[in-house]
Each structure stands twice: as C-alpha cells, then as structure tokens.
Amino acid sequence: MPVAVITDSTAHLPEGFAERHALRVVPLHVLIDGVAALDGVEVGAAALAEALGQRRIVTTSRPTPGEFVKAFREALEAGADSVVSIHLSSEISGTWESAVLAAQEVGPDLVRVVDSRGTAMGLGFAALHAARAASAGASAAQVEAAATAAVRCSETLFVVETLEYLRRGGRIGAAAALLGTALAMKPVLHLDDGRIQPLEKVRTMNRATARLVELAEEAARGEPVEVAVHHLASPRRAVELANRIEERLTVVDGCVVSELGAVIGAHTGPGVVGVVVQRNPGGPGSI
Q1: How many H-runs (helices) and E-runs (strands) does the chain carry?
Q2: Contacts for 165 with CB less than 8 Å, ≥ 6 apart
Q3: Alpha carbons 49 and 21: distance in angstroms, whole number
Q4: Cα–Cα dist 188/182, whole Å
Q5: Would you tell me the crossing angle of helices 140-152 and 121-135 to the nearest 10 degrees?
Q6: Phi and psi at residue 12, in whole multiples of 5°?
Q7: What is d(CA 125, CA 287) in angstroms, rounded to the nearest whole number?
C-alpha cells in the first residue's frame, strides 16, 4: 500500500488483527523489578498479572524516538510512499512525542503522527479505520483524516477493582479528588479528551458492570457501532459484559473481546473491565 499505518502496543488489537490489516506495531516497554521487556512481544497479560499478584515492582516507559525512526524507515524501504503513525493519548504517555521527534528526523513530509486521545481499542479502532482507508488507496491526508474522524467518534469507559495502580502510576488526576478515601467503591471512569476522568462511583462490581452497559448504550446513540470489551485477568466478566452489550446495542460484527497488555494493565491492575464504543465517522475507513 502507498500509505503505511503504524500504531503502538497499547492498542491491544486482538490476535491477528494487525497482520490482517497490514498494521505495524511499535511496542512500549515494561520493567518488572527493573528488567525491561517489550510489551506484547516479550511480556504479556499473564506475566503481568502474575508479577502484580506477587507485588513486584512494575513500571512502563515509551518507545524511544530511535525505535520509531527504525519503524518508519522500514515501512518506507518496504515500498510505502508515506506513513501515518497513530498513538495513545499524549496526556497519559510520551509515546506520541517520541513518534513526533522521529517523524521530524525521517521527514515531516513523509510521516504524519496522530494523537488518538485514547488507548486500547480507542486507539485500535482509529488505527483500523486508517488501515482500511489505506487499503482502499487513500492518500496520506485521507488516511490521517480517517484516523482523526474515528477519534472524534469514540468513547472509552472502564471500571477498576482498585485505584491503587492508577494512583501509583500518576494517571488518576481528578479521579482521586472525586473518590477521596472511598476506596471500597468501584469507580467508573472514562477518557475525556485524552485524560482519565471519573464519571461516578458505585458500590459493587456487578453494579459497575451494569453501568458500563448503560453508558455504552448512551454512547452508541442508537447507531450501529463497533465495540471492544477489554479486561485483565477477568475473562468471564468480559464475556458476560460483551453478551449484555450485544443484547442492547447494534454491534457490527459482534463485540471484540481483548485482554489488556502489560503496559495498560500495569496502570489499571487485574480485574479491570472496559468498553470502547466506536461510532461510524463516515468517509474513508468507516465501517
């Protein structure tokens, strides 16, 4: 394809999606007790959940600009005329910044970098819409537009078992002020313009899951939508949530159920469940 589409490992695309849509994925870094590994390549969800359960020290870091330079040049050398690189929110990671620095080195006329203002399939759907546009022969500007249009039509909602991991990673922001010391409550959160923000708090995980269904229905606005359900170490809860959403929403091709990888999982902790609702933005790359 004349336009190569690149994303990062926090998209948590289901197995086989990247290959099917010719997406290149640049992994972030996970450090467990100081030992570095590549997210989704050398460490996955199971290893992360085990490490967190053993209370080992888990931290994360962005790819270096050099890693992005390598990915961009490989795509161009493989025959692409240009690159559109789509990444997790610049409000919660420096990954986008690394990609921008790399684009400046490779050539801003060759590489366009998009801030998805999201993560997980909030990022993944934007990358997939861009890849569909690229496979249809769209120009780099049109592929970029497909990604940004998808970003505007996406809603990410999630519930965590505990705020400990979000607080530890410094990603909780205003949520800490809202929830105060009521850590027995289950916080319902969402991504608002790239930042993790609170929506409400409920008393049980069952009630929180029910609220995710209700909020997903509101986000769909009565339209056919693409939906992804994410989890970490909670496959049964995720499948139940997906089934309930499919009963209430018109879901294109059924809910995608995907376990979070090590980077996002490190900041949310085991037990997290989330929903990404992707409305049809129209134009190239739309559903």
Answers
A1: 11, 13
A2: 52, 266, 267, 268, 269
A3: 29
A4: 13
A5: 150
A6: 50, 50
A7: 10
Can you read off the two tokens belonging to residue 264? 């996002």
Name the residue among 274, 281, 225, 231 with its Cα closest to residue 253.
225
Q: What tens digit of pLDDT does each residue of 157-206 get?
A: 999 887 767 766 555 554 454 454 455 678 888 999 898 888 888 888 89
Nearest 5°: the CA angle 238, 211, 51 is: 40
Place of tokens 């992804």: 228
Distance of alpha carbon 247 from its chain centroid, rounded? 24
The token pair that represents 225 in the structure block: 């939508």
HSE of 127, CA atoms in CB hemisphere, 13 A: 34
Sheet with strand 226-231: strands edge to edge: 195-202, 186-192, 154-159, 273-278, 226-231, 256-259
pTM over 0.85: yes
Q: 137: number of CA atoms within 13 Å, CB side? A: 0
Sign of CA dihedral 259, 265, 269, 275: negative
Neighbours of 97 (CB within 10 A): 15
CA-CA distance, 54 to 154, in Å (whole number)? 35
- The amino acid occupying position 15 is E
- In terms of Cα–Cα distance, which of 157, 121, 107, 105 is closest to 7? 121
